[in-house]
Specification:
Layout: H1 4-75, H2 79-86, H3 103-129, E1 134-141, E2 151-155, E3 163-165, H4 178-190, E4 194-201, E5 206-217, E6 220-230, H5 231-239, E7 248-252, E8 258-260, H6 270-273, H7 275-282, E9 295-299, E10 302-310, E11 316-322, H8 323-326, H9 328-357, H10 361-374, H11 389-416, E12 424-425, H12 426-442, E13 452-458, H13 461-468, H14 470-487, E14 493-495, E15 500-505, H15 507-511, H16 513-530, E16 540-546, H17 555-578
Parallel strand pairs: 12-14
Antiparallel strand pairs: 1-2, 1-6, 2-3, 4-5, 5-6, 7-8, 7-11, 9-10, 10-11, 13-15, 13-16, 14-15
Helix pairs in contact: 1-3, 1-9, 2-3, 10-11, 13-14
């Protein structure tokens, strides 16, 4: 027969090893899976948050242009002038010469357009000044409608505020000249509001992105309303984006041309710059975003993960990070779990050898514990729980001691605890007062106990009991007691009678007694503001007295002064209520 030491050591170490391997394997698998989900959620959320930030910026421009477009439609009244032949049925007719019988109608049209443009100018200025990042705004009239009224163009390139500059002469350029007049002809060709760019505007000498709306009235093309955004303002929000250690964001137009890349200049096709990334994105040509699933690819020998999302102007935002960085925290946690598992195994193996060497120690402790129990000491502690006769006996003995301890503690709590509120009762106060009196009696003249007593009385308890029943009165008392315990956190609180409570302040609460009384009033006001029923409110009269060795013989005189001040506060409260 093997010894208890041998069996206990073998069983314990084997069980511990199996448990560690099982739990460790499951833990590592769970950590790895959760790490993948967390990383995917982090990257997807970062991509989505960046998309929202850029969309908010783009949408603010769209809303501003759309607002002005609606105003243009409301203030433009050319139906009668266009129907008479000033503008042809195609809407692209030119102004008639002065010798023509319709020249009077052309003059009227020019006059109306002039007044209309002036009104739009005023509104557009206000809208543009409240739109972030806008560098130019304009209302360009179709030159085939009027040669006299061109519209307006405002710019703040190189200046702090907008100033008017001459509009572009559309007749000087070919409609295919993107750098000069693409902003005008592209929305005309599409027949709808359009985002254009990024492109280099040769007229203004700056790279920009434009949002332009074509204006039609009575089937006639009137012109365009638009705003230009500095390209660098848009991509500046991406250049400062930090994605782990070496991750980055990429912005392309809808055709895959780079708008922003931290290493590759704009204008280059991402298919040439980073073909693996393009191939990954092209696997989802009809998707607006990659969702929460990573797209994995390799670039320059580095395994990466990417997520993409589509902006409101159909640009594609891509966030990229190396897999090693995404999984770094997960791998670090797995290493720590493995190290902790081996450490636990070694530690517990050593402890088990030491424990079994001292196998007889539990018997000695059990004998000692029995002697203490016989003497009335129920605080005995036994640490041996082996699966043998001694262990069974120890367990039964501990259970007996625990039952006795619970029973005695329950008797003590019933004797000194208030059944309704859970705080100490008057019997407990008597014990505390006796201990304080003993301390006063044994103290020296230069070092006496420092304490204060606060008496509290719950007003309106009888009224609540009479009007709403004792159940609501109990709620009122519990709420009041919770408030008292909340304020006097470090002090014993006693229920002295039906609606009376007392607190003995010592140490920190004694030093902060004035602040605590002020805090009591603040908390009372907060509770009463939140209360919806009378029994949810608290109205408490209170009085505090500080022990003064020169005039107080003991605790009773301090309690009496606190009680008198409490009743004085109660009278003042009633006087204010009936004043």
């Amino acid at each position: 027969m093997h010894s208890i030491r041998t069996k206990l050591t073998a069983i314990t170490i084997t069980s511990l090893l199996v448990s560690l391997l099982s739990i460790g394997s499951l833990g590592i698998y769970a950590v790895k899976a959760q790490g993948e989900r967390d990383a995917a959620q982090f990257m997807s959320l970062m991509c989505d948050n960046c998309r929202k930030t850029l969309n908010e910026y783009l949408n603010s421009v769209e809303q501003s242009v759309d607002m002005v477009t609606r105003y243009v439609g409301e203030t433009l009244h050319i139906e009668d002038l266009t129907s008479g032949g000033v503008i042809g049925a195609s809407g692209m007719g030119s102004a008639l010469p002065q010798s023509d019988p319709m020249s009077v109608r052309q003059t009227e049209l020019d006059a109306h357009l002039f007044d209309h443009v002036e009104m739009v100018r005023t509104v557009f200025r206000s809208v543009a000044n409240h739109t972030n990042g806008v560098i130019t705004y304009y209302y360009r009239i179709n030159p085939e409608i009027s040669r006299e009224v061109e519209g307006f163009l405002f710019s703040r390139i190189g200046t702090a505020s907008f100033s008017e500059i001459p509009p572009t002469n559309l007749l000087m350029y070919d409609p295919d000249d993107m750098e000069h007049v693409g902003w005008y002809y592209i929305p005309l060709q599409r027949g709808r509001p359009s985002w254009i760019g990024p492109y280099y505007n040769d007229n203004l000498g700056i790279e920009m992105i434009s949002y332009v709306t074509p204006i039609y009235k009575a089937g006639t093309f009137i012109g365009v309303v638009g705003m230009d955004v500095d390209y660098h303002t848009l991509v500046g929000q991406l250049s400062g984006l930090r994605i782990l250690d070496t991750g980055y964001a990429v912005l392309t137009d809808e055709n895959g041309v780079i708008v922003y890349h931290p290493e590759i200049p704009s204008g280059e096709s991402i298919a040439n710059a980073e073909p693996a990334l393009t191939a990954a994105v092209q696997r989802f040509p009809n998707e607006k975003n990659s969702g929460s699933n990573p797209i994995r690819y390799s670039y320059r020998g580095v395994k990466k993960q990417m997520y993409f999302n589509t902006l409101s102007n159909n640009m594609r935002l891509v966030v990229v990070a190396p897999e090693s960085e995404i999984r770094a925290s997960t791998m670090k946690l797995i290493h720590r779990i493995t190290l902790a598992g081996f450490s636990i195994l070694i530690l517990f193996s050593a402890l088990m050898v030491v424990t079994t060497t001292h196998l007889t120690e539990p018997l000695r402790r059990l004998t000692s514990a029995s002697r203490h129990l016989a003497e009335g000491d129920y605080r005995v502690k036994l640490s041996y729980h082996g699966n043998d006769e001694v262990g069974i006996l120890t367990g039964a003995f501990e259970q007996l001691v625990e039952h006795l301890r619970i029973y005695i503690n329950d008797l003590n709590s019933r004797a000194y605890q208030d059944a309704l509120t859970g705080v100490k009762n008057k019997g407990a106060y008597t014990v505390s007062a006796r201990m304080l009196n003993d301390a006063i009696r044994l103290s020296s003249a230069d070092k006496t106990p420092e304490f204060a007593i606060v008496m509290l009385d719950c007003n309106n308890l009888k009224k609540i009991n009479d009007q709403y029943g004792h159940e609501k009165g109990d709620i009122y008392l519990k709420t009041a007691c919770e408030l008292i315990c909340r304020v006097f956190t470090h002090s014993p609180v006693f229920r002295m009678g039906g609606d009376e409570f007392a607190a003995i302040l010592q140490n920190d609460d004694y030093d902060d007694r004035k602040d605590l009384m002020t805090r009591f009033n603040v908390y009372t006001e907060q509770i009463n503001l939140d209360a919806t029923e009378p029994w949810e409110e608290v109205h408490i009269a209170k009085g505090m007295a500080v022990y003064d060795p020169s005039k107080d013989i003991g605790v009773e005189s301090v309690l009496q002064r606190a009680d008198e001040r409490m009743y004085a506060d109660k009278k003042r409260s009633k006087a204010r209520r009936f004043a």
